[in-house]
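Methods — Computational structure assignment.
A single polypeptide chain was analysed. Its primary sequence is given first, followed by the predicted tertiary structure written as structure tokens.
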Amino acid sequence: MNTPAPSTAPAAASPVDRLPRLSPAQWAVAAAILVTALAVAPPAVNLIRWMVSREYYEHMPWLMLAAAVLAGFRLRANPTPIDITTSWRVMIWTGLAMMMTAGVYILPSRWMAGPAVLSLLMATIHFVGGTAAMLRMRGPMILFLACLPLPVLLDSWFVVRMQQLATWLASVWLDLFGVLHLATGVDIRTPGNNFVVEDACSGIHSMFAAITVGVGYGVLMRYRWYRILAIVVQMVFWVVVANAIRVFTVVYVQSQYGTDLSTGTPHQMIGLATFALGLLLAISSDHFFRYLHPPKSVADDDDDTPADAPDRLLDRPASARGIAIVLGGLAAVAVIGVLAFSQYSRMSKAPRSMQELAATSAIRFDAVGQDYLPAELAGWRQTGFDVNEKTADSIFGGMKSFIWRYTKGARSVLISLDGPYGDWHDLALCYSGVGWDVESRTAIDIADMPGPYKAAELNLDRPPFDRAQVLFACFDPRGASVDPPPDFGDAFYHLVNRLRWGVGDKQDYGGGVVQIQLLDQTPVELSTTQRNRNRELFEAVVRHAFGDAKGAQ
């Protein structure tokens, strides 16, 4: 019987055998990327949850999904072979990802998780596929970049500026049409009505959506980054114009025809129409510029570097010293993460609802009435009381304001108890949003309190007639002081602290923060004596509300 000869054909390679063999240096970089990904994943998830809770950013997760789907289509249409490399470009992106991940835990800051994830994706793409893979992923990465929320409180600043700009443009057109009105900040007053340009009317919601549409349009058209930036600028310009038309229409129709378009279905329809108008005008502008400057015949995400060009410095293999830097950075991330994680874990992982903040604040919002403050206080007499139920679009934030009017002789001031808030509440930003200029801001001590209590004082000016002094202080659920940021009154340090507060998360006080405010608004400059008497009344109010166990009950 003949025995069959053994086959000499090579055995089929397993999927594991098809993977490239890694050198020790490549394993070190892969480990750095993997550990950084594990470290940044929890705060990145928290960042996404926070964005979903914000009306401005609730569409961002869908943009992330669109970026992932586009990346899959690009890879399927143009497969890129795996080419493991430890170039200087990989080292730089890996180092940035590790440093930003460390910043997440040091500040602590959930926002820093966004750029950390972007840097980590850049490092991974360059590590696995080199520059060729990055060119194919340029569009999806631009979409991921557009998902980042604004840092440094710029979203709040943007809201205010959009409201003011929409008010100003609408006021100009009302002047042209002969409508009698007075515009101050975000307020338009006519003889029979008072219109407040809130967030929705200012176009801030449609603005972020329009920017997203502009970036997506540029990516699908395979524009280069500067053309995409031009599209975004056009979107911003035309959406501002369209929403100013929206404000103008509401005020004009109400003033001339007595028809209220400021609420309900008509207001929503006007908003949709102006949003569509802004998009169409922006795309029309793009077609006009394409006519003036036609794009190249090749796809804009192709690499136009000549084939015989020398290797770029950042694409050359990293030296042993570069690998050592990666290993050192990996060790630093591990140490910082272990030491600082307890600090991050104490931060609020998800924004509390207004009702949750109110239920855990130092006061019972459903029990506050006119008798919460006495009829006589520090020589002032209570002469009025009102309750302001705030909407979600209110620039002053919070859920309720309880407002008392106190009178002494010919002078009259307002005392308000506001909240709840998630942290110390900066009224300078709020008053700026309604047309006031902040001339000065200082931190002051509150006397005769059981412990160090600090407040803030603002001096305001709103041409042509208004001057104001504002005193305010914030209190945590135990009735203890929530102090203003350090160096609150110094312009430079205020900017530094704004950076820290905006990039970093704010302290979790275990519940809602409430605020006491005194407002003295006059047509003339207050004298030193008048200011001191206002401070005396403000301190008396704080002592009455939080000087003993009453505030926490």
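Note: The chain has three domains: 20-149+319-345, 154-292, 354-552.
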